[in-house]
UniProtKB/TrEMBL annotation:
One of its GO terms (molecular function) is ADP-ribose diphosphatase activity. Coiled coil: none annotated. It comes from Trichuris suis. This is ADP-ribose pyrophosphatase, mitochondrial. GO terms for cellular component: mitochondrion. InterPro entries: NUDT9 (IPR039989).
Length: 464
């Protein structure tokens, strides 16, 4: 029984006229073959063990901004102190239990080392966590007399999948939890909910290709001064959308973007910097990276052609001549993510948290938008503009806008938010930090070093 022939695209459950055990073994075989075909393609890129690395091995750094709901911060974060090879709060940093029980991995210089050996790349890459990352696939099935039914999503994909922080105690991926919550919301409890799960498939839960399957591009040497008669052509790099929404390719006859302008709900202008709001060149209807050629053409891993806005927010407060930062236990202090409009300020998932907190705090729904809009006015921008990034291509690039949000300046929203997230967050004093101005200056200095900004990028304006 082949996977593709078995799992056809339907809006109703797929039926197997077979015992449950046979279905389980068949799916297990299909899943294993697909996974190992992918992982084996990456094998053998470097030495087999860490002891084989002589002269001293140094992997190419590969650290990508978080494209998940939550990620470990870099080790430069002063509040990040992970506990490897053990339970670290709600995050299990041990390896999966096998016949070897919990085999440990090597930790050198306070960093975890891949037990499979060198890969050629160093850093967190595209993963959410340093060290082991647990990826779970779940299948919804039910027995109906002599048949076993499998729930298919609209795309024809059967699996609910995603990363989890504790595969032993909390093995369900978030997308499956959302589906279950939707069932409770729409149909109540008991048999009605059970029926709903297998007869009502939501379009919002189409499973997209995960970012982690995209290999990092090989480094290229770019000569900006080319010989006459040899025009530059970048290597095509277009990846299937791994976000909630992406621009289509230019081959789509209905795709008519308006670059350097507001394009409906999408702002395709560059972000504001201390040099003003700059523009970019559009050639034959395709935007050109203002920082110059990269060696790659296309949209790459980004959501949009042209500028892609990535916002990062640090929540802080000042009390008795001391600056405090809202720190997530065993996580990062920043809220970050892509937005379609530079003026939004807050990433979408933080706005969702605000709305949930206000709702639970019994704040009138009509006041939610007003309170969040007022909070946006209290955002302090400390750096913005285009920056170097491994995803940048000739036709799509990242532009950042990093803020500090003074929580004490929006007391109603702040009180509701802190009550909602209080178990996972706490205020921590930033040593020798007494004013918001000092905090902004320190964050700008830190990000300038992290992004390695030079004069080709508009964020360079903030440094002069």
């Amino acid at each position: 029984m082949e996977c593709k022939k078995t799992m056809k695209c339907h809006y109703t459950p797929n039926r197997f006229a077979a015992p449950y055990e046979f279905v389980r073994l068949t799916l297990q075989s299909c899943l294993a073959s697909a996974l190992w075909e992918f992982y084996n393609s990456r094998a053998g890129r470097g030495p087999k063990t860490w002891d084989d690395t002589y002269p001293p091995y140094v992997g190419t750094q590969w650290n990508v901004d978080c494209c998940w709901k939550e990620c470990d911060p870099p080790f430069t974060d002063p509040f990040f102190s992970p506990k490897f090879n053990e339970k670290d709060g709600k995050i299990d940093r041990r390896r999966l239990k096998t016949r070897c029980k919990f085999p440990k991995y090597l930790v050198r210089g306070e960093k975890p080392w891949n037990p499979a050996g060198p890969t050629g790349y160093a850093g967190r890459g595209l993963f959410p966590r340093w060290g082991p990352n647990f990826f779970v696939r779940a299948l919804l099935i039910r027995k109906q007399k002599r048949t076993t039914e499998i729930l298919l999503q609209e795309s024809g994909y059967a699996y609910f999948e995603g990363f989890v922080d504790d595969v032993t105690n909390d093995p369900l991926p978030e997308i499956l939890r959302l589906f279950a919550d939707e069932g409770l919301t729409r149909s109540g409890y008991g048999a009605e909910q059970k029926s709903m799960l297998f007869n009502h498939v939501l379009a919002t839960f189409r499973v997209q290709k995960p970012c982690t399957q995209e290999e990092p591009p090989e480094p290229v040497n770019i000569t900006r001064f080319r010989k006459p008669g040899r025009p530059y052509v970048g290597t095509r790099w277009n990846v299937a959308c791994c976000w909630d929404k992406c621009d289509p390719f230019f081959t789509d006859p209905l795709f008519k973007p308006q670059f350097n302008a507001r394009d409906g709900n999408i702002d395709r202008r560059r972000v504001w910097t201390q040099c003003g709001r700059l523009t970019y060149t559009v050639q034959n209807g395709v935007p050109s990276n203002p920082a110059g050629i990269t060696g790659y053409s296309g949209r790459g891993l980004f959501r949009r052609w042209g500028p892609n806005f990535y916002t990062k927010v640090l929540i802080a407060m000042r009390e008795k001549n001391q600056v405090y930062v809202l720190w997530k236990k065993n996580g990062t202090s920043f809220y970050e993510g892509f937005v379609d409009n530079f003026d939004e300020g807050f990433p979408k998932f933080l706005v969702d948290l605000f709305n949930k907190a206000l709702y639970i705090g019994k704040v009138e729904g009509t006041e939610h938008t007003e309170l969040i809009q007022e909070a946006r006015k209290n955002l302090k921008l400390y750096i913005s503009g285009s920056v170097p990034h491994p995803w940048n291509t000739d036709n799509a690039w990242i532009e950042i806008s990093n803020y500090v949000f003074r929580c004490d300046k929006s007391p109603v929203l702040c009180k509701a938010f802190l009550k909602y997230v209080g178990k996972d967050y706490q205020w921590r004093p930033w040593a020798n930090m007494h004013t918001t101005k000092e905090l902004l200056a320190e964050l700008k200095r830190s990000d300038t070093q992290r992004y390695r900004i030079n004069a080709n990028y508009s964020a360079f304006c903030a440094l002069h």
